[in-house]
Amino acid sequence: MDFTLPDHILKIKYETREWVENVLNPLSAPLEEEERIPEELVAELKKGRFFGLTIPKEYGGQGWSVVEWFTVLEEIAKAYATVRLIAHCMNGLFWRPLQQYGTEEQRRKYLPKLATGEIWAANTLTEPEAGTGKDINSKTTRDGDDYLINGRKWLISTFPDQTKLLYSFAATEEGITSFLIDLPTEGITFVPMEKMMGCVGPRHYNVIYKDCRVPASSILGEKGKGLDVAFGMLHLSRVSIAFGCIGLAQKMFDLAVAYAKKRSTFGKLLVQRQAIQNNVAQMATEIQAARMLAYEAAWRFDQGQDIVTNAAMAKMFAEQVVTRVSEMALRMHGGVGYTKAYPLERHFRDCRSFHFEEGTEEIQKLLIARKFLK
Question: Residue limits of the Acyl-CoA oxidase/dehydrogenase middle domain (predicted)?
Answer without folding.
Answer: 124-212
